[in-house]
Design brief:
Length: 416
């Protein structure tokens, strides 16, 4: 299949080849997508400040513009004119490149998200989506992984120990949660039969009972949401920044517009992650359409906007309500809980797609495997403290009481 036929299979804009009108429409969609991203980030920063201030009985931004809407713009202008500092011991090229490695992937992810239905311009029908490649969701996952490289290289190139420790945390966190996130997406691919984000939305168009969050049994959605929060370094998984012990983390040495790019990428990742959750599990722009002129264009966009704002609010709510997770707890959640659970649920979905008998058999295998893993972890935890070393008093607060008693009893027995 040629490249043009692949494009035409996704977006009807390319069914009759590429003309100057098609090129112009694509250019307009790219510019509109870029503008929507910038506006959404501005509103998201204002929205987060207002929601958290309301949770904490504060006022929030209220000086720059009506209701403080221009506060983000004022902050951006201030950062643009501040002095751009580059540390003496930094790798200057990588130090300057890192902010773009965080921002550009977030923009590319938004390009494959369907925000509405179709529209006809000058006789050409096109989707309200910048691009619909046949491997759209794989491109989104790949861009999500590349975005972490910006954080990692920013910390490594700064020439300072605190950003370096943050970059090490970022790489470990990415590896821990990328696997669980990928397997939860794979369950959606299995039930949708396609890697195209538009196809994933179309198969959920029959109503809320056809949404993947219900068809897949909620578990993949919960796994994806937790892994997505960790991938975007949002609280309670913001151990990469961790102001209390890492002085701001990977961007400690950044200032001016480069710091603003990281700030922009963080909030844009929040918006795009919310949009991906809506696309994969909640039908994207699908929803009830009133029979009014232009309803097939307006209402899908409104449904997508309402769903995305709801998840943006969830991200803000978690930030205002939960404390930062301890780093070892973060790693334990990723490796011991989410990865086995996502793998087991993916195998269960694949089994039931083959037949009911295969699904039941796969369920039995998953339960037995889960019991074996649980017992293995329990034995491993018990053996971590079987040495006869004397435990300092502070260890009693970090080790389960039963293991401390076993250590004490063993020491007393050896003394006698």
């Amino acid at each position: 299949m040629s490249a043009m036929s692949l494009l035409a299979a996704g977006d009807p804009l390319y069914q009759h080849g590429v003309t100057w009108i098609v090129f112009l429409i694509v250019a307009v969609k790219v510019l509109l997508g870029f503008g929507i991203c910038l506006i959404s980030v501005t509103l998201m920063i204002w929205f987060e400040r207002k929601v958290i201030s309301d949770m904490q009985a504060r006022i929030g931004p209220n000086r720059a513009g009506p209701w403080g809407l221009a506060q983000t713009l004022a902050d951006g202008i201030k950062l643009f004119f501040k002095e751009d500092l580059i540390p003496e011991r930094s790798d200057r090229i990588v130090f300057k490149l890192a902010p773009f490695l965080s921002l550009v992937p977030a923009l590319v992810i938004f390009a494959v998200i369907p925000v509405g239905g179709t529209i006809t311009i000058a006789g050409y029908t096109t989707q309200l989506q910048v691009a619909d490649p046949p491997i759209g969701i794989l491109l989104a996952i790949a861009m999500s992984a590349i975005g972490v490289y910006g954080v990692m290289l920013a910390g490594w190139s700064s020439g300072s120990k605190y950003p370096l420790m943050s970059s090490v945390r970022a790489s470990a966190q990415m590896i821990s949660y990328e696997a669980a996130l990928g397997m939860s997406v794979l369950t959606v691919v299995l039930i949708s039969g396609s890697l195209s984000t538009r196809t994933m939305v179309d198969v959920q168009g029959g109503g809320p009972w056809h949404w993947n969050v219900i068809r897949l049994g909620v578990i993949p959605f919960v796994i994806f949401l937790i892994a997505g929060i960790a991938e975007t370094n949002r609280p309670p998984f913001d151990v990469v920044e961790a102001d209390s012990e890492l002085v701001g983390g990977f961007h400690t040495e950044y200032s001016s517009i480069r710091f603003a790019l990281f700030y922009l990428a963080e909030f844009l990742n929040t918006v795009t992650m919310s949009a991906i959750v809506v696309t994969l599990f909640f039908g994207g722009p699908s929803g009830y359409i009133l029979p009014i002129p232009g309803g097939t264009i307006i209402f899908p966009v409104l449904w997508f906007l309402l769903k995305t704002v709801a998840f943006c609010y969830l991200f803000v709510w978690l930030r205002g309500a939960l404390p930062r997770s301890r780093y070892d707890k973060l790693m334990d959640l990723g490796w011991r809980r989410l990865i086995p659970l996502s793998l087991g649920w993916m195998l269960l979905v694949a089994g039931f797609l083959v037949s009911v008998a295969w699904g039941i058999g796969m369920g039995i295998v998953i339960v037995v495997g889960g019991l074996v893993l649980s017992r293995a972890w329990e034995l491993g935890s018990e053996r971590e403290f079987t040495d006869s070393a004397v435990l300092p008093p502070v260890a009693s607060r970090l080790i389960p009481p039963r293991l401390v008693r076993d250590q004490t009893d063993r020491g007393e027995g050896e003394g006698q």
